[in-house]
Amino acid sequence: MQSEAEAKACCADLYQSDMAKLIMGDTLHPGGLGLTNKLGRLMGLRAGDVVADLASARGESAQALGRVFRCSVLGVEFGAQAVRHAAGAAPDSSRARFVRGDAENLPLRSGAFDAAVCECSMSLFINKAQAVAETARLLRPGGKFGLSDVTIEPGALPAELQGDLGQVLCMTSALTAGGYVDLLDAGGFTVTERLDASVEIIKILDEVESKLAAFLAFQKMSGGVTDSRQLERSPELIAKVREMVTAGELGYWLYVGKKRP
In what order do the strands lie in the sheet with 189-196? Predict the structure, then answer.
């Protein structure tokens, strides 16, 4: 049986895979940096704030928050390769630094941060309640926690998305829209902002559909060999995900929680 540490390492590796980058782009979450900045505005980030970016991946969001809001950002990421990439890509003028760590057992001092963000990652955590409790611990009283993630209704996930692809899309262990509110409330936060950004999933589907069409056309022209059965099912799967978003079964939401005294 796979240990918890092995499961986390496997998840981190998968999220840094070519498949993840192809589907989600460099930021590895819907909405890209535009939605990162919107989350920062909802949180009321200010110049000089000390911010933790949990599951910071390759560091694009941490860099953006530091640049746009002029705050100091510490990215915490479980994947060693991602941490090395983020640190190496950071310019000398960067306000962001990066360390390796587990969001469920943060290597950070209690009460040392004004705010924390976690984008499209809470759904992947094995112990979500522990991750929220750790976030509350590192924030000062009144500190803000900005969370964005995929939401899914119980029983809505089709069998085709219960493997690696569903995990890359943050679907396999996602909560309902109300489930994240309950999670934050139980962890010591009062939710002050909720924003439905589900349209960003449709935008990703449009991009994936375009890439897939171009790839199939290239394969046909070049006579390349590929797994035609899997590719032939891709448009059907994209259409199914689109239907789920339209029906409200699948979404993407932004939340801001304020740490209670």
Answer: 96-100, 72-77, 50-54, 113-119, 139-152, 250-259, 189-196
